[in-house]
Amino acid sequence: MEIEDIFWKKQRVLIISPHADDEAFGCAGTMAKIKDAGGEVYVMLVSDGTVVQFTEEGEKEISAEVRINEFINAMEFLGVNDYEILFKDTKTHLRLDTIPRRELISLIEKDAKLSLQNLNPSIVALPVTSYNQDHEAVFKAGFTACRPHLRGVKSFQRIVLGYDNPAISWSLEREKFHPNFYVDISKYLDKKLKAISFYKSQLKPPPHHASLKSIEYLARMRGREISVEAAEAFVCYRFVL
Questions:
Q1: Confidence grade of residue 153 (pLDDT, cut at 50, 70, 90)
Q2: Would you say the pTM of this structure is higher than 0.85?
Q3: Could you name the CATH architecture of 16-239?
Q4: Which of 17, 28, 91, 110 keeps 20 to 30 A from 101, CA to CA?
């Protein structure tokens, strides 16, 4: 067993996803790698609801039920240990910024089934902030929930990461994504793409950034940044040994 496999085998990882598909876009290869090494993976999906999307044929309504089923199928394919969905109503979806941040913090910190207090993960992966209001709300609430505190009083995550997303290339200069933590997913690229393929309602045709081909290109580009075939990139906010 390689050193990195030994590392992942010891980890309990919580991935917090604003919407169904964000966790796969940013972390599916890493999730597959952790599970293969014997580690634990949990996913907290914050919001899902019915949305109207623009397609080549015009506007198309995607129901919450469709999106939730896609999420469940992807989670079962990746073999995660557990998952939960916090909000399933359309009134909340894409409006997480209207919920008092303290309420979101409490859910992530102690009130949800897979909260930090209940799960006590060693690693937390957050969506990096972007132009999307839900992503920003989830990141800020999650970042606050992971704040430093006295050991033994609350759970403490030794590693806090921010994960990539194909859409964040459109962001303000001060919010640009500058990864400093990479996971080699060369052996798991096909599994990542398969997991993402379950999100049929969300995928776009090439050359859109949310097309399956573009997501493959992004993984291969991240791989080239560290001289491997494919990788997933993260910002590391905390790493405690």
A1: low
A2: yes
A3: 3-Layer(aba) Sandwich (3.40)
A4: 28
